[in-house]
Amino acid sequence: MAKNPKAADSRRGCSPTRRPQPRRAKAAPAASSAPDIEDLAPAVPAAAPAALRAQLLRWYDAHRRDLPWRCASGGEEERAYAVWVSEVMLQQTRVPVVVGYYERWMARWPTVRSLAAATQEEVNEMWAGLGYYRRARFLLEGAKQIIEKGVFPRTASALREVRGIGDYTAGAIASIAFNKVVPVVDGNVVRVISRLYAIADNPKESSTVKRFWELADQMVDPLRPGDFNQAMMELGATLCSKTKPGCSECPISSHCQALALSHENSSVQVMDFPRVVPKAKPRRDFAAVCVVQIAQGLEEEAPDAKDNDNLFLLIKRPEEGLLAGLWEFPLILVDEGKTDFQNRRKAMDKYLSKLLSIDVGQRSDVIFREDVGEHVHIFSHIRLTMHVELMIINLKDGVDRLCKKGADSTKLKLVNESSMESMGLTSGIRKVYNMVRAFKEKRLAVSEKGHVPTRKRTRRLKQ
Ligand code: SF4
Hints:
Pfam families: HhH-GPD, NUDIX_4. With 463 residues, this protein is α+β, with helices and mostly antiparallel strands.
């Protein structure tokens, strides 16, 4: 969400008489053509804040969902922490998914102090599967910042100083935990406001975003700002949904200009608001992924592998950029025209040799190598096609050469099969791992213990 106007934190000066002005009607459309939404005058006056607030809060008191972060116990700071964690998780993820993550997170780190003592690795593990991992990193950095300062910020402007806290999260924490009269604007609130005021402008444009914040600022209840903000979000998440708004049950339908317009003109629907802006096409990337399994001679070098002699090699991604600092199988981007078998293997061998000292054929004995298949993973702006292969090797020098202490050991690790099952992996890498498991079960007839096949049953790669 774009910037909140700086005035957002100075809500105290706002009086209920500061109503937004409805857009003026443009010239009437030609009789023969269907009217454009933007040419239609609002059919009801702008919402009367006092009545709207009362109706919405009454509805919220009666219908709000029982969500764990709404029952956070303790003082204001405990509540602020709970709101912060839940709002960050909810930014890109649906409520039913967030509930479990939230409960596990709060059981492990019930206070901002306990979170500040966690490592990035632990936080990433806990976050695995929620996506948008930058959020987890910022939560940890923000917690450390707050503990360093010694006080939990109480105002929206002070909260915005914390790493990763933007206008929306600052407004949510300040209003819900500290009862500050500040607005919040998220996707649900945008939908409700754009319908209430029949705003047909592009909701992504900065001038429109600014207007949403101004309207939200004027609407927020001065006595129960936190509940009012949650009520707006709740209405957008439930009754005022994208495609099936329940207008007949809506507590504020008498204020809704989009609904009134739809009654006056059959060519208008409330779903016309907010305007749908076509998304930019995601970039198409292609990657070669090599799931490297190290098969033999492991007991001395990898004590945690005693029960299972299959180790998988994981590489840590760079600390900046997409999926920063997360673990993955060896992965390299390849050009679209070079995704064929030969080119991928050539590029992967070069990568393994240069960065990991796995000189395929020289320092390692390849006992199996075969393509497993493709997995397409969709990020917000990238469509990544991963061409996955499985390579089972026997390292001639032993695994300690790979995992020697020092700088390199922070960038790669060997994980045994049972740990792979339980560790936090990104959903893309988890899917790749599951693909490989299914492939092995089918193709290699792995024994019940999960051991790799003997050489008799495998074939060597042609060097
Ligand atoms: S009347 Fe319908 S469109 Fe208007 S705010 Fe209520 S649910 Fe949304």
